[in-house]
Amino acid sequence: MSRPVVPAKDVDPVPAGIRVPNSFRAIKAEILKRISERVWLPGELIPGEEDLAREFGCARVTVNRALRELAEIGLVERKRRAGTRIAEHPLREARLEIPVVRSEVEARGAQYRFSILSRERLEAPEAMRARLDLPAGTPMLHVRCLHFADNRPWQFEDRWIHIAAVPDIADEPFERMSPNEWLVKFAPFSEMEIGLSAAAASGEEATLLAIQPGAPVFVFERTTWLIDQPITHVRMLHPQSYRMVSRF
Amino acid sequence: MSRPVVPAKDVDPVPAGIRVPNSFRAIKAEILKRISERVWLPGELIPGEEDLAREFGCARVTVNRALRELAEIGLVERKRRAGTRIAEHPLREARLEIPVVRSEVEARGAQYRFSILSRERLEAPEAMRARLDLPAGTPMLHVRCLHFADNRPWQFEDRWIHIAAVPDIADEPFERMSPNEWLVKFAPFSEMEIGLSAAAASGEEATLLAIQPGAPVFVFERTTWLIDQPITHVRMLHPQSYRMVSRF
DNA sequence: AATTACGATATGTATGTACATAATTGTCAA
DNA sequence: TTGACAATTATGTACATACATATCGTAATT
Fold first, then answer.
1. Which nucleotides along chain C are within 7 A of a protein C-beta?
2. C-alpha span between B73 and B220 (Å, rounded)
3. pTM value?
4. A87–B191 C-beta distance less than 8 A
5. Under an 8 A CB cutoff, do B96 and A246 touch?
6. CATH of A101-239, one of 3.40.1410.10, 1.10.760.10, 3.40.630.10, 3.30.2350.10
């Protein structure tokens, strides 16, 4: 009955009182194994922390941590009085790395360069006001910027910045640092919303990206807030060759 | 100096020895606050767990948990002997919800329906073998499926399933449940890789999705594993109107 | 000077214990 | 029958303590 949790070559039970380092990982692995071998089926209630701790010869807190981390990635579901059960629909979310354009380009061994197309101080247009929940007449900075990889257009960035949220940016000419990098460096944010879609390039967009009008583009939009003050909204267009990947 | 961490209305210091429930959340929040208020700048080394524990009047383990969770979302970076520092490029990843087609459609108040276009048992083709790291001749199930929202094409799904990893699927006719739902329900996975891109619809794809050939489509690819056994690879095509959103 | 060994240090994790909290179940009364 | 409330129970979290482990700086060795 007692099934010890020593990492690899568990031959005999762990004597009670001996501390096995990393045992919470071993427990995670063991539970994962039981799920994969269908010892425990989706939807099934598994033994309580107390029982598992006894079975694995460890403290309840250790089992707790293992289960908590499994719950974080969605493999099990836990409820207080009800216990822990294997998730019916395991793993519902992926982590997506938010790239910094320059690093992304350089990571591919390409030469990075950017060019500011326009930079204007304007009152927030209707659509942006609505999206960011700002009052009429709020001063904003509108920047359009083209990023290159080895002198080929990589990304067209169309950005609106809420000046009051990052006053220092008002005087920034973006000569050496792109708005992207500047904001990443100086404007921390706590919340973000991203949108991903495909679209057909407009005439202007096609010209900028050196593709045919109507050709598919990958659209990545992002809005960020600090606490609840909007900072910036950006729409980034990539030619279709672009691909965003996330593994975990 | 001593700055108590009581959740909301902390007026006076927490007497040592009093246990503040959820204090690790409060500590997380306080550290977040210090980052956003630029008390601690990106790249800066922050005080050690021991010191913070003393300052916050709690146990080191509690600070540890707060910092560990902040490290998980990329806001701070930790190294053993070196201590904890504020990340230079804070918040680099977003959580992306992986949708279940049916729920996604129904969540928009639309009628869901799907249709199996083809279902064949084949040996893994070269590209799939390479991608999933399977030996030649591995039996796989190839399923093509069209999902509808209110009878309009919503998603074209092209899926390869590693039969040995989910033997039960061999006899599944997918009459009532789509492959998507079936796998979500019966084939838990622990790892996944996703790819997002834009593409031009091929002739066949255009016909299926009822759009013009060459029109932009949003491509969502996903490969899943359980431990290190590949389960399935799927390529999902959406007409350009599709938009994937994530807020956090 | 380059290499190795070692001690110091900050984080990482395990344990036993105690109490907190949410959710279910049972109980009693209206 | 039903609604309010208390008891129960599994998970959630805190704490003190102890040991584990990675890594940095420094001293000893080559």
1. 8-24
2. 24
3. 0.71
4. no
5. yes
6. 3.40.1410.10
